[in-house]
Amino acid sequence: MSFASDRLRPVRIWLYGLAAFVLLIVVVGGITRLTESGLSITSWKPLSGVIPPLNQAQWDAEFEAYKQIPQYSVLNSWMSLDDFKYIFFWEWFHRLLARALGLVFLVPFVIFLFQKRLSRDLALPLFGLFVLGGFQGALGWWMVSSGLTELTSVSQYRLAAHLTAASLLFIALIFVARSLTPGRVLGHVTRFHMITASVLVAAVIFQIGAGAFVAGLDAGMGYNTWPLMDGAIIPNGLLVMDPAWRNLFENALTVQFVHRMIAYAIVAYIAWLLWTRNRDGGFGGVHGWLPRLGLVVLLQVALGIATLLTSVPISLAVGHQALAFMLAGLAIAYLADLRRVG
User: What's 2's DSSP letter?
Assistant: First the structure.
């Protein structure tokens, strides 16, 4: 098929570009979180908020609003206006990119509709992704609002919802783009392959959510040893809170332990998929995704361990989060290609 006859090629490029843009927003969001900048803007102004303070009076007003929340009074009362400007920038930039995502989606979408590149069966799901993007923005403000009255940081529950929604939007964009790729995909595919690939996607998304709880509780700042944790494989204190379920979400020790265990489980699961595939026919055709997934998951584990052992430097922590999204993207691409085998 020539480029000229492939009318959906611009649509695929646009969707992959949107996925890359979502990943950029996630990276900037990670920096915003790690620099504790997320509560620096205490109001939500969808239009006027695009423009940052432009004069001294406006900066003073923003700084004064920040001084009214617990994070300033409890943790950051030492801040000067210049210090505030630094954290303000990251939150403003994160929100700016999120707003820009709407335009980057909507303008090409309308153009493709006029060009009749999108069938009704494709246009409706794509508009659903636009709605999901808007919902993600609402989740972002819901998350920020949790830290403006009583907490000194955002709720880890809302942070997990925000990040998990971003991961779902990211993989949905890749899945649709990959599903629109022309041509046949080779390989023998059974129901077993479809189920195991779906489980892998779900496990990676679940781990991203678990990682958000680690970030929300700053759980990575403690227990910075590996493979032991607090001097043991299974540390004491995992169930000190009552009721017991709270430990999974509010006990920093338990939250980090669960994140580690899920990582081990995903490594073992991919190793099992590689073993069964190697035994049953090798990695030709669509199953060529599996060795790539194996390599990326090992890199992700190594990066996670390095992040932990070095007490969560921004560069490694952001890289760890970004690579988690890339792993999810590879897993969903594998699943999409399994569906295209014919």
Answer: -
CB-based contact 297:307 (threshold 8 Å):
no
94 labeled part of a ligand binding site: no
Same domain, 270 and 130: no
Over residues 291-310, the pLDDT tens digits come to 999 999 999 999 999 999 99
Q: Which residues of the chain have pLDDT under 70?
A: 1-5, 342
Q: Are residues 200 and 307 in the same domain?
A: yes
Residue 106 is part of which domain span? 1-183
Please tell me the predicted confidence (pLDDT) of residue 183: 84
What's at 68, amino acid-wise?
A: Q
Q: Say yes or no: 201 and 121 in one domain.
A: no
Kindly state the helix (H) or strand (E) to which residue 68 belongs, with its residue range.
Answer: none
> What is the spatial distance between Cα 294 and Cα 278, in angstroms, rounded to a whole number?
13
Q: What is the pLDDT of residues 39-52, one digit of tens each?
A: 999 998 887 789 99
Quickly list DSSP for 233-285. Answer: SS-TTTT-SSSGGGHHHH-HHHHHHHHHHHHHHHHHHHHHHHHHHHHHT-S-G
Instruction: Select from 149, 183, 217 the last residue of a domain.
Output: 183
Query: Are the C-beta atoms of 149 and 69 separated by less than 8 Å?
Result: yes
Is 287 among the annotated ligand-binding positions? no
Let me know whether 179 and 225 are in one domain: no
Q: What is the pLDDT of residues 74-104, one digit of tens each?
A: 999 999 999 999 999 999 999 999 999 999 9
Last residue of a domain, which of 183, 200, 224? 183
